[in-house]
Design goal:
About 40% of the residues lie in helices and about 20% in strands. The chain is an alpha/beta fold and about 300 residues long.
C-alpha cells in the first residue's frame, strides 16, 4: 500500500497525463516524499530545485502566476518553517494558488529526531490569511484531496501524515468537499473531532468506549481551515464532551481551531485536547512514539474514559 504520500502523487501523475499545465516541484527529497511515481511518469512536469525550499516556493509562485497547476512538496518541517515568509507573501498576500504539500508531517520521521518532526505546521499555516489547510485521514482521502486541489484556485497547505500501510478508513467512495467535515461514526455521549491518519486510532478508541457504555461519535475534520462550523454547532447540542485528536502540538492545531469557534457558542460541552505535548521529546520508532505520547488507541481510550467518568 502506497500510503497517503504515494497515493497523493500517484493520482497527480494520472491527472498530469491528461493535461500539460501541471508542475510538481521538490527540494531534493522527492523519493522520500512519495513523488517517485510522478517523477518517473511525468519527467517534463517535474522540477527538483535542490535543497532550496524558499526558492522552491518562489518558483512555484511564478509558475502559478503564469497559469500552471503548481504543487511544491518536501518534508513538512522544511516546507512550512524554512519557507514561511515566502508562503506568507506569495500565497497569503498575493493569493497565488500554489499547493504546498507537507510530506511526513507529525512524528512519522521518528528515527530522524526532532529536527525532522513537524508538529507545529498547522499552527503556522492556518494563521496565514487566504490559505486552505487540509489533512486527509487515509490514502483514499489523499486521492480525493489531490483531485480537489487540482481544481481549486485557492492557495493550499496539504498536510500528509502517516506512512506506507496506513490503515484505510474509507471502504467505499464518498462525497468529498473542501471545508465539509465527514461523520465517520455516530454517537451521543462524546464526539472525537480528528484530522490526519491518527483518525484510525480514534476510531479504535471510540469502539472501545462503546464497549464500556460510552456512545462515541467520530468526525473527520479533513479541512482545518476553513473549519466546518455547522458540524460543530450540531454536536454542541447533542453531546456531553468534545475531544480533539491530532498528531500535532496541542497548541495551535485542530484543537485550538475548534476551541476558538466554540468560544462564541452560547452553550457547548467541555473539550479535552489529545495531541502531542508542547515540548520536544525523545526520538524512536513511530508506533513507540505514539504510545509514549498517549496517542495509541488504548491510551486514547483510557484518557477519554477517565475524563468522561469525572464529569459525573
Amino acid at each position: 500500500m502506497l500510503g497517503p504520500q504515494g497515493s497523493f502523487f500517484a493520482r497527480l501523475a494520472e491527472l498530469a497525463a491528461e493535461r500539460d499545465d501541471f508542475a510538481v516541484l521538490a527540494a531534493d527529497l522527492a523519493q522520500s516524499s512519495g513523488i517517485g511515481k510522478f517523477m518517473r511518469e511525468c519527467p517534463n512536469q517535474f522540477y527538483n530545485v535542490g535543497i532550496a525550499e524558499q526558492n522552491m516556493v518562489n518558483i512555484a509562485a511564478g509558475l502559478a502566476k503564469t497559469g500552471f497547476k503548481t504543487f511544491a512538496a518536501t518534508f513538512a518541517n522544511f516546507i512550512t518553517m524554512r519557507s514561511c515568509e515566502q508562503v506568507r507573501v506569495n500565497m497569503g498576500y498575493m493569493k497565488l494558488p500554489v499547493k504546498l504539500v507537507g510530506a511526513r508531517a507529525g512524528i512519522v520521521n521518528g528515527h530522524l529526531g526532532n529536527s525532522h518532526f513537524c508538529f507545529e505546521d498547522i499552527a503556522l499555516m492556518r494563521v496565514i490569511p487566504n490559505l486552505v489547510v487540509v489533512s486527509p485521514v487515509d490514502a483514499f482521502e489523499a486521492v480525493k484531496v489531490a483531485e480537489a486541489a487540482a481544481e481549486s484556485d485557492q492557495p493550499m497547505y496539504i498536510r500528509l501524515t502517516g506512512k506506507v500501510n496506513t490503515p484505510m478508513i474509507y471502504k467505499e467512495d464518498y462525497d468529498f468537499q473542501l471545508g465539509k467535515a465527514v461523520n465517520l461514526k455516530e454517537g451521543t455521549d462524546i464526539v472525537i473531532f480528528t484530522t490526519g491518519t491518527i483518525a484510525a486510532n480514534g476510531l479504535k478508541a471510540a469502539k472501545l468506549l462503546d464497549e464500556v457504555g460510552i456512545s462515541t461519535a467520530v468526525v473527520n475534520i479533513h479541512t482545518i481551515k476553513p473549519l466546518d462550523g455547522e458540524v460543530l454547532e450540531a454536536y454542541a447540542k447533542t453531546t456531553k464532551l468534545w475531544v480533539s485528536l491530532e498528531e500535532h502540538n496541542i497548541v495551535g492545531g485542530l484543537g485550538s481551531a475548534i476551541a476558538e469557534y466554540k468560544a462564541a457558542l452560547k452553550q457547548s460541552p467541555p473539550q479535552i485536547f489529545l495531541g502531542l505535548p508542547d515540548a520536544y521529546g525523545k526520538a524512536g520508532e513511530y508506533e513507540w512514539m505514539l504510545e509514549e505520547n498517549g496517542l495509541s488507541a488504548q491510551k486514547i481510550f483510557e484518557r477519554i474514559k477517565d475524563y468522561f467518568n469525572q464529569l459525573g
